[in-house]
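Folding Query — how this chain folds
Tokens — whole-number codes for backbone shape
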Amino acid sequence: MSNLLILANAPKQEALVYQKTLDTHTQPPIFVELFVEDELKIEHAHEIKRRCVLTYAGEKIYIIAAHHFNVFAQNALLKILEESPINTRFVLIAKHKHALLSTLLSRLTCEDRRTQIARERFPLNLHTCTLADVYTYLQNLDKTPLNPEEGKAQIQAFLYALQESTISLPLDMLEDIDRAMRANSLYYRASYNLLPLLLRVLELRET
């Protein structure tokens, strides 16, 4: 049985749907356990490792869904994904492949269930914007406070613009974007979340 990565717009909801499908349509019944977190941390990974060696005569499936997968947690899961216990399958659910280490991805088959969402255009040209342009943009953001959903749309628009640009993208930039997303969910101001990302772009253009 191959382990699976499902890409979904809403990992938590996708995990519940996937579990319900298994419970309803699978014969004979299988053992299904769900691990759903905002961030999958090392202690969650250790708990999964403890649980997956439980004795069960039939098939076992462990569904692991998170918006963010801690690097230490991923490294802790590598061994059990590479040498899974007998009759045991793991299903990871994430929003995008960038959430996972390449070593983890190599041990998973991928199924993309994301629906295409209309992209909001980022108002700055990342190739030509200046520090003054960044300052003006952030000032305008502060004039109309954004709710977390609107702030998330701005960060996503920035990410799309970055992916479409020819700016060399270091791996830690994705971690910066994940941190901005988490800060946004905690109601940090959009300008506060986007400032370090935009300053990093200006820095990368100089290298």
About this structure: The helical segments are 11-25, 42-51, 71-82, 102-105, 131-143, 148-164, 171-185, 190-205.
